[in-house]
Amino acid sequence: MAEVGIDGIEIRTGKLKLDLPGTFAPAQGDDPEKFTKGLGLYTSSLPDVYEDIVTMAANASHRLLDRKDLSLSDIGRIDVATESAFDKSKPVSTYVAGCLEQVFEDDLHHANKGERKFACVAGTQALDDAYNWIRAGRNQGRKALVIATDTALYERDDPGESTQGAGAVAMLIDENPDLVAFSDAQGYGSADETDFLKPNQQFPSVDGKRSMQVYLARMREAMEDFERNGGDTHPDNFALIPFHTPFPGMVRRAAALGFRHCIRGTEVEEEVADEIGHQPRETEFDSHDAFLEAQKEYTETLTETNMYEEWYAETIEPTLAISRYVGNWYTGSVHIARAAGLQEALEDGRDLTGRQLLVGSYGSGAQAEIHAEAIQPGWEDEISQLNIDEQVENRRDITFDEYEQIHDVHNHDESIEMDPLTTPDGEFVFDGWGRMGERKYSYVE
Questions:
Q1: Which residue, 155, 220, 275, 424, is most buried by CB atoms nearer than 10 A?
Q2: Phi, psi dihedral angles at 263 (to 5 degrees)
Q3: Bridge partners of 330?
Q4: The domain spanning residue 435 has which CATH number?
Q5: How do residues 189-227 score in pLDDT, each as one tens digit?
Q6: What would you measure as the largest C-alpha separation in the chain, in angstroms?
Q7: Cα angle at 164 between 222 and 217, to 5 degrees?
Q8: Which residue in the list 120, 221, 262, 344 is annotated as catalytic?
Q9: Which helix (H) or strand (E) element contains residue 13?
Q10: Is 404 in the active site?
Q11: Is 159 within 8 Å of 345 (Cβ atoms)?
C-alpha cells in the first residue's frame, strides 16, 4: 500500500504586527524581557479588519491548490480544525469551500466537509481522519484538504494576552506525498481537564499554571503510549521534534522532560552519567516527593550539559523560528513548528530525506498525541515554495491604540466599526453580514 502523508503545505499569517517588547510591554508596564527571554516571543500576528479564520484558511488553500496545479474536483474532503469558530452549526469548511468556488471553475459539491474541535490538537486529529479515509480506500483517488485556522485572542489584561496570534495552515493529504509520510505508530495521553475552555464565550478561561502542568503530563502519557505501540523514542532517531507551541518557553520545558525520558536506560544516559550521574529511580527514595525533587534537579542539570544543548539546538530550536514572531495559532501551532524546522534545515543545507520527525501535538481539555513522520524526497522543493518569511516581513506594525481597536473588532461584535489598516490585494476578504447574521466573503483582485 502506498504511503500517505502531507503532500503540500501553505501558511497564511495575519497582516498586522504587534511588537511585544517595543509596543506591548511599555503600554502594559511590563519588562520587555518578560516576553523575549521568558516566553520566547518577539512579535504577534493579528488579523486586519477584513481578515478572519475563513479568509486566512481560504487564502492559504487557494495558494496551495494553485501551485500544486489542482482543481476542486481533485479534493474529496475538507476538514477545518479551529477553536475560533463563529457558528455552532455551520462548519467553517463550508465557508472556505464557498470562497474557493469563487476563483476555481469547478466546485466542491461532492467533497465531504467537516469541522474538528479539541482545542489545539484538533489539527492533528484532522490529519489522522484524512489519513484513515485514504488508507481505507474511500477517497476514490481524491485528496484531502486539512486546514488549521485560528485567531488566538485573549481577554484584555489576561496573562495569555501576550501569546496571541492569528493564522492558518493548509495541508494537502495524499498518497505518495512530497513532504512527509505518516507512520502507523501513535501514542495518546488524554484526561478530562478544565485547564483552558470557552464555555459559550469568545475569549478563553485559562488556568495558566494548571494548563502547563496538564500539557506536560499528557505529553508524558502520549510518549509512553507511543512506545507501547511500537514507537522507538531514542533521541538519535529524529532529525526534528515539532511540539505544540503556545509559546517557545513552554517548549523549552517540554523538550527537557522529553529528552530525559528518551535517554532513560540508553547508552546516552550512560554517556552523560560520567558528567552528572544517572537519572533518579523512584525505588531509591523514601517518598514520592523526594523522588520528584531529585528528578527536577537532575533535569535542570541535564539541560546544562553540552550533549543536551547540542541536541536542543539541532532538533528543537529550528522548529521555533516562525512562532517567535507570530505567536500562538492554537490548532496551527504544531504545524507551524514542523514547517519552521524543515525550512531552517533547508536553509542550513541539511539533507533530511528519509529522516524522521517526532510530532508532539496537544489540546487543552486535554489530549496529547505523539506520532512519527518520515521526510520524503520532495521535501526541499515543497518547503522552498513557502513565502511565510515574506509575509512576516511585510506585516504592518501597529500602535497600542490600534491594537486595542483591532482586539475589539475581532470579538464578533457587529456594532464595532474600524477602517482597515492595510489594503487587500489578490485575496479573500470578509465583506459584511448577511440577512441571517452570517459572515460574507468575496475575492479582491
A1: 424
A2: -90, -10
A3: none
A4: 3.40.47.10
A5: 999 998 887 887 778 887 777 888 999 899 999 999 999
A6: 71
A7: 20
A8: 120
A9: strand 4-13
A10: no
A11: no
User: What is the band of 1 on the pLDDT scale with cuts at 50, 70, 90?
Assistant: confident
Q: What is the pLDDT of residues 237-258, one digit of tens each?
A: 999 999 999 999 999 999 999 9
At residue 302, φ and ψ (nearest 5 deg) are -60, -40
Q: Is 339 exposed, middle or buried (0-12, 13-18, 19+ CB in 10 A)?
A: buried
Give the DSSP letter string of 32-74: THIIIIII---EEEE--TT--HHHHHHHHHHHHHHHTT--GGG
Q: What is the DSSP string of 166-229?
A: EEEEEEEEEES-SSEEEEEEEEEEE----SEE-TTSSSPEE-HHHHHHHHHHHHHHHHHHHHHT
Name the burial class of residue 227, with classes exposed (0-12), middle (13-18) and buried (19+) by CB atoms within 10 angstroms of its CB. Answer: middle
**Contact status, residue 279 vs residue 262, Cβ threshold 8 Å:** no
- Higher pLDDT: 137 or 204? It is 137
16-19 and 43-46 beta bridge pairing: antiparallel
As a whole number of Å, the CA-based R_g of the chain is 22
Mean pLDDT for the chain overall: 95
Taking 90 as the threshold, does the pLDDT of residue 141 lie above it?
Answer: yes
Distances (CA, A) of 290 to 260, 282, 294, 321, 444: 18, 9, 6, 37, 63
Active-site residue 83, yes or no? yes
Confidence of residue 307 (pLDDT cuts 50, 70, 90): very high
Find where cell 523522588 sits: 291
Q: How far is CA 334 from CA 155, 195, 395, in A?
A: 23, 19, 22
pTM over 0.85: yes
Answer for the pair 52, 439: CB distance below 8 angstroms, yes or no: yes
DSSP state of 22: I
Which is the catalytic residue, given 51, 62, 244, 410? 244
**Catalytic residue flag (residue 262):** no
Q: Which residues contact 285 (CB under 8 A, 6 or more apart)?
A: 291, 294
- How many folded domains does the chain comprise? 1
Q: How many CB atoms lie within 10 A of CB 287?
A: 9
Q: Which of 10, 51, 83, 382 is catalytic?
A: 83
Range of the domain at 53: 4-444
Q: What is the band of 324 on the pLDDT scale with cuts at 50, 70, 90?
A: very high
DSSP secondary structure of 85-146? -S-SSS-HHHHHHHHHHHHSSS--TTSEEEEE-BTBTHHHHHHHHHHHHHHTTTTTT-EEEE
